[in-house]
Amino acid sequence: MPSHAKPKAKQHRFGGPTLYSFYDIYGRDEKFQAAIRLAKRAAATDYTVMLSGESGTGKDIVSQAIHLASMRSNKPYVAINCGAIPKSLLESKLFVYEAGAFTGAKQSGQPGKIEQAHGGTLFLDEIAEMPPEMQVALLRVLQDFTVTRIGGIKPIQVDVRIITATHADLWKNVQEGKFRADLFYRLQGVQVTLPPLREREDRLELAKLLLKGIGSELDQGPLSLTTAAERLIERYPWPGNVR
Question: pTM of the prediction?
Answer without folding.
Answer: 0.85
